[in-house]
Design goal:
It contains five helices and 15 strands. The protein has helices at about 20-25, 70-85, 130-145, 180-190, 220-225; strands spanning about 1-5, 10-15, 40-45, 50-60, 60-70, 90, 100-105, 110, 115-120, 195-205, 215, 235-240, 245-250, 260, 270.
Length: about 280
């Protein structure tokens, strides 16, 4: 299945210093990107909180960054601050190149995400029929693969470990040099104490990105009472076949407890067990 990926921006980073520039900004090892694969990267601020989550692709000497549209202005402005005297050009090519998601298909020019999913970058827009149900199918496939997203409501609220980006160094390299927030991210890793992780849930009621996960029996809830703000947050969601699915962070010691959205009377969430 081919699906035109709407609501995603695409930045091209070019110039002789492009690789070094991105290596100094992002969490993963840019120097090790395969030319035909998507590399996941967190873009963090100095406290280690994730500003944006990128799909990074190498095209020759240039790099492409794919991420949700709503973060475009924020990302463009922040990256340009750090260019300074480097030979780096940041160009918005969202309306020049199309992003097509492939599910259980292959293409000579694809960038593979995993065995099931890939992204195809092409020079023209509108070659793939745009169907709402196809967009939902893509979003559900990404959710099933535990691929998170960062939106405005969750930007600068989560460290990479909460998105499971440290597991098998999926989106974080612990052997590369410095980048913003690297000391905090590395300290959490070597302490081995990620108290909050990303899990899959489903519900028969609507949920919103940014909704809090509530556990009435948690020690924090009992201790803080009305000041309890939740034990996790919804980071991505999709409605599929009348049910609502999401990826959400949650304190790991609560995974076997009853979880509801926003308060003790909110919709109940059912954890989806990994296969």
């Amino acid at each position: 299945m081919k699906i035109l990926l709407k609501n995603r921006s695409l930045l091209k980073i070019s110039g002789k210093d492009a690789e070094e520039f991105l290596q100094n900004q992002f969490s993963n090892d840019i120097e090790k990107i395969d030319s035909n694969k998507v590399q996941f990267n967190a873009y963090c601020q100095h406290q280690g909180k994730v500003i944006a989550f990128f799909w990074v692709m190498r095209m020759g000497e240039d790099f492409l960054l794919s991420f949700p549209d709503e973060l475009l202005e924020k990302i463009e402005n922040r990256l340009k601050i750090f260019v300074i005297m480097s030979d780096v050009i940041i160009e918005n090519v969202t309306n020049v190149l199309s992003q097509t998601g492939l599910i259980n298909e292959s293409s000579p020019n694809e960038f593979r995400i995993n065995d099931e999913l890939a992204v195809l970058i092409e020079d023209s827009i509108g070659q793939v029929e745009e169907l709402a149900e196809n967009q939902i199918t893509w979003e559900k496939a990404c959710l099933d693969s535990n691929i998170p997203e960062i939106y405005n409501v969750t930007s600068e609220k989560l460290v990479p470990q909460m998105l499971n980006l440290d597991i098998n160094e999926l989106g974080v390299s612990f052997s590369k040099g410095c980048y913003p927030g690297q000391e905090v991210v590395a300290r959490l890793h070597y302490l081995g104490s990620a108290k909050r992780r990303l899990f899959s849930f489903k519900s028969n009621q609507e949920m919103l990105i940014g909704d809090s996960l509530y556990c009435a029996s948690s020690k924090t809830a009992l201790a803080r009472g009305d000041r309890y703000k939740g034990s996790g947050i919804v980071v991505s969601k999709v409605k599929y076949n009348s049910l609502f699915y999401c990826l959400a962070t949650l304190d790991v010691d609560l995974i076997n407890e009853e979880i509801t959205l926003n308060n003790e009377h909110g919709p109940k969430l059912e954890k989806i067990n990994d296969e």
